[in-house]
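hiii so um. not sure if this is the right channel but i have a protein structure encoded as tokens and i wanna go backwards to a sequence. like what aa goes where. can anyone help
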């Protein structure tokens, strides 16, 4: 099974490349995963203000703010409870801190402009 944080990043990148609302079933099909696997990540992303959800037959999901203002770190914090508090063995903490710093600068916009999702 794909980890929630990977599904979340893929979902946000996919939605940022779409001009219209996308329902959960279509998004899941685009990502090649069952819709039920996406639901927890989508709910957390809505709660964090990264995505917006519109209910109803014509509803779906879209990004809630410009993709240039959404970082990978924002997405990871939204869906991974342990991400901010992650503690590792001696010497590994510095690696985690460097990766986290990079994720704060890598935006969803940069990912989609680089051709992802393909």
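sure thing!! here u go:
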């Amino acid at each position: 099974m794909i980890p929630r944080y990977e599904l979340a990043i893929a979902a946000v990148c996919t939605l940022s490349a779409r001009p219209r609302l996308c329902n959960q079933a279509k998004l899941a099909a685009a990502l090649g995963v069952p819709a039920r696997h996406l639901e927890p990540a989508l709910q957390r992303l809505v709660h964090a203000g990264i995505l917006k959800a519109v209910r109803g037959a014509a509803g779906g999901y879209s990004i809630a703010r410009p993709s240039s203002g959404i970082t990978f770190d924002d997405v990871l914090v939204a869906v991974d409870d342990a991400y901010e508090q992650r503690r590792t063995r001696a010497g590994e903490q510095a690696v985690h801190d460097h990766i986290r710093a990079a994720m704060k600068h890598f935006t969803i916009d940069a990912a989609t402009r680089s051709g992802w999702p393909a």
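oh and The longest helix spans residues 4-16.
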